[in-house]
Amino acid sequence: MAPVPSEASVVCPGYVDDWPAAAEVWDRLAPDLERRGALTAWDVDMFGALCVSVAIWRECLDQIRRDGVAMAGVRTERERVRHPLLSELRAQEKIVAELGQRFGLSPLDRMRLQVLPEPADPAEELLS
């Protein structure tokens, strides 16, 4: 039998809270993941790493959007080079995809993940 985490509450780690873009990802996804049992107190650092990777990915994307995919080279104005952040963007995409799988953040991953059913609405139970 697999170990089961306690019912301890899930708390956003400070390193995520201190980074607004990462905290936004946490605030958007964590409540539903916790409600479904896909995010427990044991998972906060792994999920925090996902949130930080999404924040880094967004920053890279924003900078590339501002600068363009090709930039002026160092040697001449006419020289065009690939934006150096494209490699970091791709690296963060891989991290986000890998960590996202663990939390069921794509349709295929959700099919593989065992989660708790949506909690029943107490008001609906009274009306039944």
Verbal overview:
The chain is mostly helical. It has one domain (14-104). It has helices at residues 14-17, 20-35, 44-67, 85-102, 107-112, 122-127; strands at 70-72, 80-82. The longest helix is centred in the middle third of the chain and has 24 residues, at 44-67. The model has no long low-confidence stretch (mean pLDDT 87).
Structural topology:
Layout lengths: L13 H4 L2 H16 L8 H24 L2 E3 L7 E3 L2 H18 L4 H6 L9 H6 L1
Antiparallel strand pairs: 1-2
Helix pairs in contact: 2-3, 3-4
Mean pLDDT: 87
Shape estimate:
elongated
E-strand count: 2
SSE class: mainly alpha
Count of alpha/pi helices? 6
The total number of structural domains is 1
What pattern of helices and strands is seen along the backbone? HHHEEHHH
Strand order of the largest sheet: 1-2
Tell me about the largest β-sheet.
2 strands, antiparallel
* Strand coverage percent: under 5%
End-to-end distance: 36 Å
Please give a quick description of this structure.
The protein is mainly alpha-helical and 128 residues long.
Fill in the keyword field for this structure.
mainly alpha, 128 residues, two-stranded antiparallel sheet
